[in-house]
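Troubleshooting log. The previous structure file for this entry was overwritten by mistake, so regenerating from the original sequence record. Sequence copied from the archived sheet and checked twice against the printout by T.R.
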Amino acid sequence: MGVTVMANTPQMIKIKCGGTGTTVLQSFPARTEMIKRTTPRILFLLPALLFAADSIGVRPRVDRSQYAVAIFNQALAVAAELVPAEKVRKQFGTEVESRYLVVEVGMFPKARDPLAIRPGDFVLRVNRTRDAISASFAKAVVQLSETLKPMAKEMEAKCLPETSTDKPVAGYLYFPVRDKQDGDNEYELEYKAQRTWMILPLRAGTPR
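Regenerated output below.
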């Protein structure tokens, strides 16, 4: 299923997905598009810490359509997807995969003026409980777990960078979730920055 919705006023859009339920997309104001992929409560908050200068993120994809979900307005497109568990284990090990829900985010500015990108502007929401979870940045991992220290530097390098740019930027956000829910649309990624508010229903990406 491919769906594109355009609007210039605040809205709530309901989309029926294969008879299994309703996906709600919100954008205030925003245009929303979803790209279907064929691949498939103990929650706690951790303080948001600043990224180090060596946080360079991951390579942005060619465009937003290469992510599982994307929402955009006149100034910005935000794309995201859940990083598959097997990919997290391969990159960071089973300890990280068991403790964190990893989300890959792509930011695609449309305006010529630089856009301020702050990982702290993102929050993970659990659909069933509506709990809000802040990202646990790599420096927080170092302080909290001896077993995760060997991977902390690599995790930090792949974090979504805190920067100001008019170029596409991508990176990972790490959310502390132990009791993970399987399936698409169990979680939402909320983005709030200045006059922009976007909610992306998260889906798993295709392993790359």
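The first strand starts at residue 2 and ends at 5. Archived copy saved in two places this time.
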